[in-house]
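Collaborator request, handled under Task 6.
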Amino acid sequence: MLIGIIGAALILIGLFSAKAYGEDGDLSPEAVRESIRGGIAYLGEIQQKDGSWNEYPGFEPGTTALCTLALITAGVDKNDPVLLKALDFLRRPLPESRYQTYPLSLQTMVLCLADPEKDKESIRKNVEWLIAHQFQTNNVFRGGWSYVGSHPEFDQVDNSNSQFAILALYEAERIGIPIDPEIWKRALEYWKRMQNKDGSWGYRASLGDLQVNKSGVGTGSMTCAGIAGLVISSGFRNQSGSRVQGDEVLCCQEVDDDISNRIEKGLNWLSRHFSVQTNPGTVVDVDTWLFYYLYGLERVGRLTAHRFIGKSDWYREGADFLLRRKGMLNKYWKAQRDLKNNNAVSTAFALLFLSKGRRPVLISKLKYGSDDQWNLHPNDLLHLTRKVEKSWKMDLIWQVIDSEKATVDDLIQTPVLYMNGTKSPIPSDPNRKKQLIRALKGYLEQGGFIFAEALDNDISFEQGMIDLIREVLPEEGNEFQLLESDHPIWNAERTVPPDQIRPIYGIDYGCRTSIVLVPSWKRKEKADSVFNVRASLSCLWETDRPDRSGDEPLPDRIRIQVESALDIGENVLAYATNREMKSKDEIPESIQKELAKTENRQGAIYTAILEHGGGSSCAPRAIPNLMKAIRKELEIPVQTFVQRLRAGSADLFHYPILFMHGRNAFRFSEEEKKNLSLYFDRGGFLFANAVGASESFQKSFAGEFKEIFPESRLEKIPLDDPLFSNLYGGFVIRTVEIRKPSSKGDRKAPSLQSEEPPELWGIKKEGRWIVVFSPWDVSCALERSGSYEYKGYSWKSAFILSANILLYAIENL
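Structure tokens returned to the collaborator:
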């Protein structure tokens, strides 16, 4: 009996591991989502009739506010009955004699997120109370907050209460409640005073109390509070790299490094003591304030734009730990002793970590060089991301990636890689240069997008970027070209005023423009130039004031420039991402792990892509995406790793089915033509399409294959051909969805969609098609690039057409 129980338990553990982590051990996004759903359900099940959760006596309605905050953050619909009951409870008036910092701050955060317009007066009243209770004494506690209560200890300021107070004020300011800059100034000085020499923060300034967590001894939870306290209370207010002087914006201004240095010291302490299984610095119990610490860890990673703390991917490691800690059979996270076994609180903290931490990365800034020339405007992407969040109505984050450590796996975590500065981004060290070139090449091949900008009146970055990309993409045709006014990037989201348009250069790679470069503005340009814009996009983003209620409004002339710069940035991001954002856990941690999942499967059908000089690498994800979809939807054992071969390779004969695509003119050598002719004589098959419906590729394809098959020619495949039927296990195809670019390339009217008969051409030999060619674009649809610049098939039509062609080829080998 005992053996049977143990065996069953081991089976359940194995099933959980397989479900949560897969065969390769990588975190499963579905497992994360399932854990979040379970936590939401659990909080709903234990909610009390009046809408509250089990409260700590004397700290009402803190637990209820925390649970409500977790539900909102986890994406629960605002009309959900559980949430409505909780909000009704939190809106009940509380006697001011029972106000305390913790519950009041949490309540304020909830009201700011739920319905700020409806609750604005309540939020304002809470803000006034928090401001009135900020310590203004001329001692070490000035600028902080205490519990506020009848117990003598409650009159002592601590870093935990102070953290919650500034979080509440921060959310209130974001919805338009003005906060006196003096409040932030006092808070900033408080957090600076509280930092220990080793970079950490403890719970409270040392007052002779030697109890653990009741002194200045550094802990993970309080160091996270300190870092967040510096970031929020400074707002990087005095850290701006731009300054307004009259009607002019001064860019690349010197920044006081004190705050940045203190934040870096705090991060260094966390990296030295990093753990997601314990709260670093606590010694009484490994579980001491663990869930609270993870809640703070997520905030630090998000606010400082760090994916890694030291060498640790804090979100993946934290999520991995939380999923294992909860287990398969539980919906909730069991509370540790310091939470007095209140599972609602531990579950709420876990939900906050998992939900906030998995927010999609919108854009990342590449750190390069040994100084700060890559980051002269430290708030530029923060402000751009805030703008896009409001516009797209979704929670997003941005990050920093270090070029010296960046691999392709690191870069693919971000859909857009932003690079700027005033000096060349090319490393002087030859090995680092090779590593960066390989990483950027791999990133582009995986569908990445590079957004580069030279800063004002400087050409060293601009020229360096041109030289770098020339080495990343050395093939002919990969030169920067000025984007014309009808390019979709100009209208992807916003219409930019004509006098605010600036030159943007781009390179098409894959099925779209994949690299853009904004050159520096040079003051020698003529005053009447259409491109006479005086500040870089980065500088103008930096100048924006998204949450600064205490600042003077920008002069109209500068405000227009800032708004236009943000619109251009949003357009580029909309074009690059098509608004299709992936959460962190939905992006593979390693490309090699993804490939390994399907390599060397017995009985799999292997295919290859035919390389040539006409842009054969322009849609690198198209055929692998097709193979994955065929394996999943049709359950055909095809190999998803697709080899790339030249036409003259002897290895060609190991692959019975070849794919080919391109967008430029090309030629095969005589040896390549002979090898291809022999390949087809031995029963080989080729499916090709013109990427972007390229006429030059179509013309080259027809000419080259006329020479390979002098006695045959491409002929149109009739609609009654078995290839368009379900004879081989595919689909009956009579019409397909064709997308055509709109006249202005406007994302808001992305394409003209029509149903038309498919158009395929082929070459027949001994009664079977051995070459099938589509003059319309198939590969861009299979890439799912979101590009609508070319005539081609929709994803659905491209898939069923390609599937039928592949099934035909397999049956007729």
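The cover message to the collaborator said: "The CA atoms of residues 653 and 679 lie 6 Å apart. The radius of gyration is 30 Å. Please let us know whether this matches your experimental observations."
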